Amino acid sequence: MSIHGPVKPSLLTFDIFGTVVDWRKGLGERDFERLVDVQGELEHARFRSYAEIVAESLVRVRGLDVVSAARIGAEVGTWPLFPDSRDALRRIQRLAPCAATTNSDRAHGEQMQAQLGFRLAGWICAEEVRAYKPDRRIWEAASRKMGAPFGPDWWHVSAYADYDLRTARELGLTCVFVQRPHSRPGTADVTVPDLAALADLVEAA
Fold first, then answer.
1. Hey, what domains does the chain have and what are their CATH numbers?
2. How many Å apart are CA 145 and CA 122, to the nearest integer?
């Protein structure tokens, strides 16, 4: 873990898929990179729900029938959590609000929080904002919803430094990079191997 003097957090926002939820296990290893790339392309086209985007990526890449693909897209919030996610988020949320800023739908938030067994302080998602990260409107919506001005006491946590943390850095947030499978490294203020290590850091702050 590398630390560069972060200030104590008053809010933490989390990328969900790939950071909290193990979407490689959810989508499966086969053609995973291609599925993610197609989803990214679709997120930059006209706005559609994430459920629809997942479904189309599965039809395009794996040739699934539309009914099966739609069912999978509707249930992405049930994909498995990383083993450390539940306990770590519970520990962190005792000390500071934890909210999701996620390229997903409201229904996925209900599914994922049911898996956690508790609710996050907020679920700010693409369906609500009608935009996908790295669009800064996601963070602007989080700022309004959570009553939090941009600044270093807002920590943004993601396994994707290439686009997710880049926008957070532009907004003046403390950027926390989590080393997950399929993570994409880049500039960060804090690097942790998992969310358990992040919980240790927040508890010590």
1. 2-22+79-204 (3.40.50.1000), 23-77 (no CATH)
2. 8
Cβ atoms of residues 76 and 28 within 8 Å: no
What digits encode the pLDDT tens for the residues 113-162?
Answer: 999 999 999 999 999 999 999 999 999 999 999 999 999 999 999 999 98
What's the pLDDT score for residue 20? 98
Q: How far apart are CA 125 and CA 131, in angstroms?
A: 8
Phi and psi of 157, rounded to 5°?
Answer: -115, 125
Residues forming a β-bridge with 12: 98, 155
φ, ψ dihedrals at 4, nearest 5°: -125, 55
Distance CA 18, CA 195 (A): 12
Q: How large is the average pLDDT for residues 17-31?
A: 94
- Tokens matching residue 176: 């926390």
Q: What are phi and psi of 184, to 5 degrees?
A: -125, 105
Rg of the chain (C-alpha set): 16
Q: How far apart are CA 178 and CA 184, in angstroms?
A: 9
pLDDT, tens digit, 9 for 90 and up, residues 77-103: 999 999 999 999 999 999 999 999 999
Mean of the per-residue pLDDT values of the chain: 95
By the 10 Å C-beta count (0-12 exposed, 13-18 middle, 19+ buried), 149 is classed as: exposed
Helix (H, G, I), strand (E, B) or coil at 196: helix
